[in-house]
Structure formats: structure tokens, C-alpha cells
Amino acid sequence: MPWPPKIFWVGLVLYYGFVAICWIGEATAGWNHIPLAVEVYAALLGTWIVPLIMSVIYFYFPEKAEEAGG
Amino acid sequence: MADVADPIVVGITVLYFLGVIAIGWYSRQKMKSATDYYVAGRQIGSVVNGLALESTYLSPASMLGLPAYIFILGYPFWWAMSAIIAGMPVATLLTAAAMRKYGPTSFADYYADRYNDQNLRWLVGIIVCFGAILYITLSIVGMGIFLLAILRFPYLYGVILGAIIVMIYVVFGGMIATSWNAAFQAVLMTIAAIIAAIGMINYFGGLGGFHEAVLTNNPKFFNTPSDPEPNHILAGTWLGVVGWFFVWHYGFATMPYTVVRFFTVMDMKTARRSIFWCTLFAGAFYLGLEIIGAGAKVMIEQAHPLVVSGEVKANALAVLKYYATNYGVGTPLDYSMVAAVEALQNPWILGVLAAGGLAIAMSTAAGWVMVVNVLVTRDWADMLLRSNFAKENPVLMARIVSVIFLAIGMVIAINPPGLVLDLSGWAFVVIIAALGPSLILGLWWKGATRTATWITAIVMFVLHLFAWLYAKLVVGHHAFFFLNPILGLPKTAIITPHQIWAVPVGFLLFIVISLLTKKPEEEVIDKYCVKLTEKL
Asked: What's the 3-state SS for B308-326?
């Protein structure tokens, strides 16, 4: 049966894990009420940096694998 | 409010129009075959394709609608926007790389080949044409609103001008012009959102001042469902927040106007890298929109010319109602983005916003036109109806189809029924629910069957349309779960934005029917499932 490469799951765990931690932090410790915190974790990291890291690992590792495989 | 636009704003807009027409004209010289017209000769590089993906995928619903959603729902809606951006890299290994490896010409090719049924071209085409007309209309309305609200250009002429300019470059240069123009448009719209957001932050003396101003203006803005008083009922439960998070998340991997862009690139490596560029620019764009959406209310109430002059009281909704009543088009919330930026009273920023707004609208309209002109010309007329005209004159026929779809969108956009614009939100989710399972599971599951493709597409299309309309017209809002009253619950008990439940139900239905029905031939599965997903 076809199965997505391991790196696909690493990216998913990275992003969904990050979102889950933020939501748990908001629900239990009120992170959303810390001045400028949401601008950092939801906007800068959640909307830009973490998805960007996913997009990098999704092209970098497959290319490395292609090079290694000739 | 001035009746005539600032000359700087007009100048920037005119330069933008000249730019897209010039790109269209130049692309015409590069076009030599039908493959060039349909898929840009598969010669588009990763940067251009990445930028084109951004501007095509993100429609005026992003630029006008998402800041408006933040304006209403508050901070929790930022997570919905985060999920839209994260959906881009998710598509890299889920569909994009495999689709480029396969290298089809039209969106329906994969369905017809994987399930070994040419008649699927009809089914896929009909559903896609529905979505295309709704989105082309929405985009043309967006052009008209930007030209009206920023340039004071009469709405009717704005709609006609916008549609004609898209027609010119799509007809001239097909996918080559669409790709290069979309890349140019992506840069413009991203710059527009970032500049406007920076202008807003500067107005409040920095990010700290901005945060404080938003909080003082609306103390509930940053509240989540865990706080005693959430900002709005639609984001007042974690189920609602999760619903908004997922509603557009998987669109990038399955929507026809993004999937076909992977057919235009040189190879799989370029397809994967193009998503990096798309995420880079789209993430920056959304970061800007999040700031603008959060600051819109306080910005309008403190600095909008209508408030400063005393013409309208210092209430953001009153200002937006003034726009909608005066212009007679759209809803008050359609103007939240424009009004917030107008409050900065900087013609350069407003000019770039006008160009950026037109850019996002035109690129989406062009992207959809390219999907349907290939479907109608190649799949329907040439392959299914065996039309000699389509076979001998594919580019001419594709051009005629492009003009027809843009003309339909333009005519509806002249006096757009509110329901038609709302339905573009329905169209997005229904395409994921009806056609997404057979695309994604067709690639990743050998058990996916032809019968499941037919039944899922038809059932989810009809069921989701019914549920969406029932929720909107009977229950009161498209985000209220349509079964709330039937289950004896208050109408707001379960919040399911755009009836998001349809996506998991569509996948479940597809799996169940596939398990009960006959699989396609082994060699077909091997070619279009196993081989395509190897070494991505």
C-alpha cells in the first residue's frame, strides 16, 4: 500500500503539535492575555514561520533522498 | 469623504493595468501550441509558480473577507488563517508532487485515468464549472468594489473594465500570461498588505501601542472560548474554533485552480520548491491581513476621515454602513479593509492597496478561467463530443470559452445577488468534500473505486448544497450546524463553519463505498496510485 514519506508526518506533527500546545496554553494558562504573545505565537510563528519550516523540509529532504539515490 | 480619488492612487492603478496588459501581450509572442496555452508548455519555474499559486489560490475573499472575519470574530480567527497557510506545505507531498509526476493537462485527467472511466470528465467538469462561475463572479465583484471604494470609479464600469482586462490577457497569452501575471500580482498584493499593516502599527507608535489600542477599543478581542466572555458566538466554543481552523485547510491540496498549477512546472523538484515560495509570500501576506483585521475597528473609529470630519459618529460599523449605503453594493463588512487603510490617509498606501486588491481579484478569475477553458475545450468538446472544431482549433476554442465564462461572471456581477456571493464559500468546501476524497485517496489507497467517486461526488454536492442553504436560510447562518433544530438543540448549539462536517463525511462515504464495490484493473491502480506515489 502506498504511504507518504516519513518527512510528511514530521511536518504534520510539527504544525499540529505547535497549534495544540498554543491552544492548551491559552485554555489553561491564558497565554492569549500576555501582551504581544499572540502576535508572536499565532501570527508570526503560526501563520508564517512554522508553515515555512514545513515547506522547507518538504522539499529539502526529498531532494536529499533523490541525490543519495542517484 | 472626497468624491474624486487622489491622483497618486489613480496613477498607481493605471500603471498596474498597463503592467498586466503588457505581460499578456508579451506572453502571446511566446505561445506556439495548445500545450503552451493550457499548461504554459510545462516550463514555469519554482519562483513564478509559487507566486502564481499564492495569488490564484487567495481570492478577494481573502483580502476583503478575512479582515472582516477578524473584525467580527476577533483573534481566534487568526488560527483559521494560519491553517490556510499551513495547508500549502501539506499539499506538497499529499498531491502536488504526485500530480506533477503524472503530468496531465486538465484537472479531470486524473479522475478519468485513475478510475478508468472517461465519463468522469463530465461529472468533474460540471462540479468545477459551478465553482468557477461562483468564483469568477466573486472576483469580478471584488474588482468592482476595489475600484469603487478606493478610486470612486462607478461600480458598473469597474466590473466591465476589470473583466475586459482579464479577458485580454487570458485570451492573448493563456496559461503563460496567467502565470506571469499571477506572479506579478502576488508580489503586489503581498506588498500592499505588509505596507498597510506597517502603516497601521506605526500609527499607534509600534506593536506594543497597537496591541494596547486594540485591547482598549475591544477588551474581548483577544478572548478565546476558555475566557468567560468570548468575542463572538461563532468563535465562542472550541468546536467552533476548530471548525474555522479546518474549513479551508485542505483546499490547497484539492482545489482545481491550485492543482492545475502543478501541471505547468518543469518537474517534481520545481513543484515542491514552488510551494516554499508560495508559503513565504502568502504567510507574509496573511500576517499583514491579521494585523489589518485586528486594527480595523480602532483605526476606523479614531482616524477615518468620516469620523474626523464629524460626518459619521465614531463607530466602525456606522462608517462601514455609510460606505455600503452610499455605494449600494456589497455588505458593510466588505468595506472594513478599505476603510481601515483609508483611515491612514496616505495616498501611496491606498494606491498600492488598490493595485493589490485588483491583483488578487484578477488572478483568481484568470486561474479559474484557465481551469474551465481546458475542461470544456479539451475534455468535453474534443475528447468526449469529438468536435472537429475543438480538435483543429484548440486555442481558438479555449479563448472563446474563456470569454464566455468571464462574460457570465461579469453579467452576474453587475447586480450580484447576495446569495451568489455567499455561495462561493459553499463552493470551496463542496469541491473538497465531493472531489477531494477521490483525488487524495485515489493516490494513496489502492482500494479507491470508480463507483465511490461517482456516488461521493453526487451525494456530497447535493447534500452539502442542501445543508448549507438550510443552515443559512432556515437556521439563520451557514456556520450553524444544519441539524441543530432537528436534534432539538438551540440553533447555535453546534457551530460548523460552512458545514465543515461535509469534508470528513465525504471521505468516510468514499471509503465505505469503495470497500463495497469493485476496484479498477490492477495495472491501472499500479500506474496511477502505486507508481505515482513512489519516491516523492
From this structure: HCCCCCCCHHHHHHHHHHH
